[in-house]
Amino acid sequence: MPGRLEGKVAFVTGAARGQGRSHAVRLAEEGADILAVDICRDFPSVPYPMATSEDLEATRRQVEKLGRRIVAVRADVRERAELVAAVETGLAELGGLDVVVANAGILPVASEGREAQDFVDAVDVDLVGVMNTVAAALPHLGRFASIVITGSTAAFMSGTTGNSAMGPGGDGYGWAKRCLVSYCEQMAVHLADRFVRVNAVHPSNCDTDMLHNRVNYAAFRPDLEEPTREDVLPGFTGFHAMPVPYVDPVDISNTVLFLASDEARFITGQQLRVDAGALLRTRQ
User: What molecular functions are annotated in GO for this chain (predicted)?
Assistant: First the structure.
């Protein structure tokens, strides 16, 4: 049987690993060809290693193993010209564009030397990068295309990204992700007459490198000098209403797939949380 995205092309940023790779593979499983973009370079303000060119190649191999076409390009979402060039490269080989997954994101929370630049880095990638991605893709989107933006449940909860332990980068991350709510809704209104849908997915703690790093662990367990993964699992679990420490990347990908598919053809301007009840728990 044909997949839910058979014959479509999906543009995914931050696709070298983590949620981005999961999205690219999951959409390919349902028939989509993929334009995969990632910067593949570290940021001084980010306390965990960023994806590499080898990671992006691993995404390419996984998609090709599914029998789908993929164009993998190194590009910086902060630079709109680089994204425009990446889209043109993808169009030349894949022939069209139907789905945009603006997923690339960072959480700059360096444990030492915190500066305003951390705030700038977060906003440039997490907000401006999304806007650049949409802008680069928009001229090529036809009727019934779908744009899916990655937000964050934590950005709407006090004491998380705004925790003083996170510094300016945490503030920038939270502010950027909150701005995306209004951006999503505005774009949904302005693209509705073209039947182009715009929605945002807001993950909770997700089992990726953005969650599993020493600075994040220290924020959850400030009482320990060098907390381990096992040390923070109770805190991660307590963050949610459901008794799980985190969700898996594929849990987010399944939501992205739904929003990209024709099953969601009249769903636009929505903010969908995949958060195991985290936000509701804070309101009890």
Answer: oxidoreductase activity
Q: Which residues contact 223 (CB under 8 A, 6 or more apart)?
A: none
Count of C-beta atoms within a 10 Å radius of residue 8: 23
Active-site residues: which are they? Answer: 173
H or E element that contains 211 = none
Sole residue written with tokens 């009840």: 277
Element (H, E) at 274: strand 271-274
pLDDT of 182-241, one tens digit each? 999 999 999 999 999 999 999 999 999 888 888 778 878 888 988 999 999 998 998 899
SS3 95: coil
* Res 45: pLDDT: 87
Beta bridge partners of 272: 201
Q: Please, what is the end-to-end C-alpha distance for the chain in angstroms?
A: 45
Q: How far apart are CA 42 and CA 33, in angstroms?
A: 27
Q: Which domains does the chain have, with CATH numbers?
A: 9-272 (3.40.50.720)
Residue 20 tokens, joined: 């981005």
Helix-strand-coil split of the chain, %, nearest 5: 50, 15, 40
Query: pLDDT for 86-114, tens place per residue?
Result: 999 999 999 999 999 999 999 998 656 56
Paired with 225 in beta bridges are none
